[in-house]
Amino acid sequence: MGFFLIKFLGSFAMPEIAPTTIEDGLAARLGQIVISWAAVEEWLSHLLAVFIDADPAGLTILTGTAGAATQIKWIQTVITVFEHQTDFTEIKELLIWADDLRVDRNALAHGTWDPTGCEPGTCSVTTYNWQKTEVMKTWLITSSDLDELLSGIHEWIREYVRLGRKYAFPRVKGKPGSIFDHDD
Fold this sequence. Notes:
This protein is about 60% helix and about 10% strand.
């Protein structure tokens, strides 16, 4: 049986497969989105460390294998334990914002890019999500779309720093105050 299958499959020519190449400007923007998003995931990990009183470096053993969606859920769950002590509305909003950015980032980072027939500065991106009614979605991405997402990620990081100073996170275990308030 195995020989028959190999012989049968061997009768077909393999299609030419070449890597997709997108415009340099789009590729650079997408790269910056991926790089900036790594910082968001790191800051989420530090926030989780504060809430569970863990060493941020040690916690990366767990968070390094958990995506942003999982980290956000963990933080939201832990916040419910402390809600009676402090109003965490701003932090909850920050987490919702991170989750919204995550959806867009993931669509672009994991989507299938196809520049065929696209104008300069644009590219068609197709994503697949088996948990949605619209399993496959294709849309045209522009340089402006990528710039907007990158700007949103950078704004999120600035807001994280602002809230970190306000609520004293992230911090070095055993030290008071936010690392954003220290020069060392």
